[in-house]
Amino acid sequence: MRCTEIQEQLSTYDYGGLTGWSRWRIGRHLARCPDCVRELAALRRTAEMLATAPERAAPDNLWERVWEGMETEKARRRQELKAKPRIVGWRWAPAGAAVVAVSLVAFGLFWFFAPAPPTTDVFDNPTPYVRYHHLLSQQEVLADAAGLDVLAVTAHQGSGSWEQGG
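Above: the chain sequence. Below: its structure as tokens.
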């Protein structure tokens, strides 16, 4: 064991509060360590001094005085806090405002310079769309779009208005 571990247990060792194994280890350590022996001697002298110290009765109103002092200190701290109000959230307000401003500018620039969505409808020229679904239905017979080709081709042949190509 290290000296720090031994010194933590010296008072318990001196009063006989340890098990046999711990007492044996500490005794063995004390046989070889003069620093821990000096620490034990200091503990014993302190215990002797405390035993010979005269007992004095506490004043009758000791608890009331302690309680009053605690209440006075609590009231003083409350007054200090009221005197200088702290608003924790306002400390970060400039940084938050800057983040919001940069976000709004970025969103505005994106909105202004974003490309316009295409105005053409799929049904303006459905031939590529129908061909894609026709290929899909041939490769994956159980696909969700299977059978769409039959409807689209039938509609295409029936109206005669769609162009070839794509």
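The helical segments are 3-14, 20-32, 34-52, 62-83, 93-113, 127-139, 148-159.
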